[in-house]
Every structure is written in structure tokens, then in C-alpha cells.
Amino acid sequence: MSLHKNTILKEAILSLAQKEKDKLLVRLINKDKMLLKQLHFQLLEDEFDLEDRIEKLKRNLETLMSVVEKSVKNTPVYSNYSQLNALLRQASGMINEHEKVTKDKISEIECRLYLLKASFERFPKLFEASAVSSGIKLRKYAIGRIKNVTGKFDKLHEDIQFDLYAEMKFIQEFAAKHHLLHQP
Asked: What's the CA gap between 139 and 82, in Å, rounded?
């Protein structure tokens, strides 16, 4: 049940003493880890902390990609498709969390472009058409990520688009060459 639909409960909560409301608020916040991270960022961090978060995320993505490069081969076999897909999803989760906490769209798009470009450059054979189920899953995932980042890229200010144009162009050209712009 939503609080905005239950006006009686909402009024009762608002009529509580401030000390009681504060206790309830802290208890509720502790139950939602993402909300706790968001509040920490909004209330206790500044633009320098945001820069540090962005750099840390980029380092983590680069580290993850170097691990991927050591463990996944550019050979179209089931295990390589599966491993790359799992690691790309893990990296995407890191980017999702960063965006939810910071609400910084530019760094989100930069990191998504980096992830796509790095995986396309290092593992081009894994994005070719395949009859292997894990290969199909990887292609579908890549198609979804390309659509997602393209939509977000198109909403950016033209100056920021200009800065990220080379990465976006590479991804679009790779996607066109490997038929990743449309469902296989």
C-alpha cells in the first residue's frame, strides 16, 4: 500500500512528535541500502567526491576488463560467450549503482561507451552471428545496451555529444557491421 493513497496514515505520521519521526526515518533508511548511499552522497559529498567516484568507477571498469581479457578468449565458444556476458552485466551493474547514487548522466554514458567499445575491440568474434544460445544472449544484451546508450547519448547537450562522438561512432559502426542495430 502506498502512503499517498492512505491519507489517514499519512496524517497520523505527520502528527507524530519530531523525535518519533526521526527515529522512524532512521530505521526506514537503514532498511534500504541504496537510499542510504544516495543520502550519503547528497548530504555529505561534493563535486570533488563525485570526481573521485567517477575515477574509481573507471578504474574498476578497466580492472574488470583486464580480468576479462585474461580469462575470455576471442573464440566463439559457449564458455567465452557466457563469461563475457556475465562480466559485462557485472560491469553494467556497477555503472547502474553509480548512476542511481550520483544521478550523473555524463559519467554514466562515458562508462557505458567505454564498456561497449572495449568489449567490441577486444572480442569482435563473440559479437558475430551465432547459433550458440549463449552467443545469442550476448548479442541480445549488446543490442539492448546499444539502444540504451544511444537514447541517452541523443539527450545529451551537443557539446558533450561532441566530446563523446568518436566512441559513439565506433560503437555504431561496429554495431552496423555486426548487425547489432536490429534484433537477430
From this structure: 11
Q: Which residue has the cell 575491440?
A: 121
* Helix, strand, coil percentages in the chain from 3-state DSSP, rounded to 5: 80, 0, 20
Please state at what angle helix 7-14 crosses helix 18-30, rounded to 10 degrees.
Answer: 120
Phi and psi of 76, rounded to 5°?
A: -75, 80
Contacts of 38 (CB under 8 A, 6+ apart): 100, 101
The pLDDT tens digits of the residues spanning 95-141 come to 999 999 999 999 999 999 999 999 999 999 999 999 999 999 999 99
pTM value is 0.88
Averaged pLDDT score across all residues of the chain: 94
d(CA 6, CA 14): 13
The contacts of residue 99 (CB under 8 Å, 6+ apart) are 105, 107, 108
pLDDT reported for residue 183: 53
Say how far apart CA 135 and CA 141 lie, in whole Å: 10
Give pLDDT, residue 184. Answer: 45
